[in-house]
Amino acid sequence: MATEHKRSSKSEIEDLIKARYSLIWITSPEETRVEESLRKLCVEREMRLEVWSITEGFKTVANGQGTRDVKDPMKAIDHVIRAEGRALFVLRDFHPFLKEPAVVRRLRDAAHELRKTKKSLLVLSPITKIPPELEKSISAVLDWDLPNRMEIEQAARKVMPNLPAATQQVIESDPTFMERVVESALGLTLVEAENVFAKSAVRTHTFDLETILEEKKQIIRKSGLLEYYEHREEFSDVGGMEILKDWLVKRRAAFGSRAKDFGLPLPKGILLIGVPGTGKSLTAKAVGALWQMPLLRLDVGKIFAGLVGSSEENVRSVIKTAEAIAPAILWIDELEKGFSGTQSSGSTDGGTTSRVFGTFITWLQEKTSPVFVIATANNVSALPPELLRKGRFDEIFFCDLPDREDRRQFIDIHLRKKKRDPGQFDLDKLVDATIDYSGAELEQAVIAALYDAFDTGGDLTTEGLQKTMNEIVPLAITMREMIDNMREWARTRARMASSRSKGNTKPAGWMARYGAPTANLGDKGPEPDDDGRKLEL
After folding, report:
1. Residue 305: its pLDDT value, please?
2. Per-residue pLDDT for 509 more than 70?
3. Which of 519, 441, 432 is nearest to 484 (CA)?
4. What is the DSSP string of 483-495?
């Protein structure tokens, strides 16, 4: 996986303890694995390690013996303050007790007292939930790393003796086999990896990549904030937009080690803006199939649902989950609806939207994990300007209405998907009948014509399609001013998804069917529509 090198959690915590950090928050669901690393660290540094929980009290696990039946949270902090010698204390799942003002106050006292000693106090929790009163007292917050490649491979090799001898020989003879297994399991906790390897061995008598991928899907389901999107669309289902598709094809192999060795940076993501129904969401769905990577869909509204104060934790959870599944694609549909209130956030929701948005765009700018973000937006005017700044996305593409050739592609694709032979239809007539139609409108026209044919007991014909298409009023007419404004904005600020995009021209094809508009379009003289005809405005 092509990621930049960073210090391990064990090295980081060792530095913090050497620097006499008195109160540290560690976020991790892997209690056993974290405590084992801390135990080894305490043995190396000749420190005592004591671990507390509400069910067992204190238990000494390194450089000492005995337990202390201190289960009350206040008395537990008192014990840490009074203890002597070089020691490390871990409070498991302590965050629920931080709702009590007396416990928070006593923990602040402890942070102050421990600065004068050779002791450090660690709060170990699966979530980061720090009361505002404690923010300045906690010296550091550390998100513990998930298992690295070596740890995952060790877990897999523990299961190997249970596999058939022939399978073991195949694995050992193919040096890339174990590499693929480890790659597919990255992002799982150590327990999850051990469990899925065991399940795979029982079910398939080998390390099955599909079984491992299913475990990753479970992580998404448990998070409740992301949706794992199955690959139903193929890249060939996307009509038009040849520039955008070429850009995506060229980055298909950019997440592998060969690309990293070549000096390529990881692609960050793209923002697709433009006319509704032109294939932005379809493109996002199809990229997962093209790149053979998990596609995760984020509904921004879910981030803001729930208890007050949970939104910031939710966005951190989304980022952490996406990075755990990486390499992956994170798809955010209709981005403007989720973050349109950032400017007024201070007066409407206490700044929650602004803080969540700030966390998100900072991650977009600085992320080094192989998470490719595809964001779509219909109303560019509602997007916060900070989101459009260079460095957030690799490219901003504008998706315009399909031209004549693109419409032919769309009609061909939708006829084939409905098990009809496009060669049996007069595509030129259908293309002429659908000037300024979006891709979604072309699809719905085919579906509506199918319903009509089914109702009459006949089959789909060119005449039936043409009749249905003539009855549809395209979005280019009902939202003409909005589309004009979008094209004007995109002319100098975005890259066109298609080389045949109309760019800043006005939709004109509808005039042949509906007559001249009553609104003043400006004194621009004759202007061609997408079929090249001259129309007198």
Report:
1. 64
2. no
3. 519
4. HHHHHHHHHHHSE
The size of the chain, in residues, is 537
Instruction: Look up residue 330 and give its DSSP letter.
Output: E
How confident is the model over 444-469, as a mean pLDDT?
A: 94
Instruction: Please state the rounded mean pLDDT for residues 514-521.
Output: 40
The pLDDT tens digits for 89-143 are: 999 999 999 999 999 999 999 999 999 899 999 999 998 889 999 999 999 999 8
> Six-digit token pair at 507?
């939709």
Q: Residue 65's pLDDT is what?
A: 66
Write the CATH number of the domain with boundaries 9-143.
Answer: 3.40.50.300
Q: How many CA atoms lie within 13 A of 291 on its CB side?
A: 29
Amino acid at 128: T
Helix residue ranges, H only, 334-474: 335-339, 345-348, 352-366, 404-417, 427-432, 439-456, 462-471
Please state, in angstroms and rounded to a whole number, the distance separating the CA atoms of residues 256 and 273.
Answer: 28
Q: What is the pLDDT of residue 517?
A: 41
Ranges assigned E (strand) in 110-261: 119-125, 140-143, 226-229
Do 421 and 451 meet the contact criterion of CB atoms below 8 Å apart? no
Residue 533 has pLDDT above 70, yes or no: no
Interval 46-72: pLDDT, tens: 999 999 999 999 998 887 766 677 899
Q: What is the pLDDT of residue 508?
A: 42
What pLDDT is attached to residue 304? 76
With beta carbons less than 8 A apart as the criterion, state whether 53 and 148 touch: no
CATH number for the domain whose boundaries are 404-472: 1.10.8.60
The CATH number of 149-223 is which of 1.10.10, 1.10.8, 3.40.50, 3.40.30? 1.10.8
Q: How far apart are CA 304 and CA 94, in angstroms?
A: 25
CA-based diameter of the chain, in Å?
93
Q: Provide CATH 3.40.50.300 ranges for the chain.
A: 9-143, 229-399
CATH superfamily of 229-399: P-loop containing nucleotide triphosphate hydrolases (3.40.50.300)
Distance between alpha carbon 287 and the CA centroid of its chain, in Å? 13
Helix (H, G, I), strand (E, B) or coil at 186: coil
CB half-sphere exposure, 103, CA atoms < 13 A: 15
Which token pair is 232? 């139903």
> For residue 477, which phi and psi values (nearest 5 degrees)?
-90, -50
Enter the pTM of the model.
Answer: 0.70
